Amino acid sequence: MFELVQNQEHGSIALVLFIGFLFGLIIMYSRLDKFEKMAGFLLFEDTLAIRMAMTTVGISSIGFYILVANGYATFSPKTAIIGGLILGGVIFGIGLVMLGKCPSAFFVSVSEGRIDAFVGVIGGMIGGLIFTYSFPFIKSILGPDYGQIRLPDFAIEYGGIITIGFGIIMLIGAYMLPTLNYVDKAEEEKINTRK
Question: Which of 68, 120, 129, 145 has fewest C-beta within 10 Å?
Fold first, then answer.
């Protein structure tokens, strides 16, 4: 595994581990690895998850565009297979609702010793194995491949404006959303009866 990271020229193993550690700290500090945050997000009663996602997409789109434009990074978008996007979105949504967290937060929760997250990681590995062995069948039912589709391709001369404008819209949207914090009613009642 370590040779694979080195051969793909993503930087040193220490840098990759540091970025992963920093990501885990941000997830833990923001409490996005907690069921209550995801439950609040799914009930439209907590805006932290969507605000963090919008901020991340906004900063990343601007930063990545600058890196690509200056030759420090390259990218190759996946091809658009609409059936695969729909099926993947449905499976992702079911997993998110059942386990109450995004896949990236599973590993943070496992490092905290949470058994529910460990079950999710094992389920994800089994699902990945099933997908790998059944891919020839799945590929035949996903529909046509539309190739690489990017928004700037529809207006090539305005690619930078579109990308940076999109990033700014995401950042402004995240800032403008109201701050809502979900409080689990059962937990609130327990706290009130103790007083």
Answer: 129
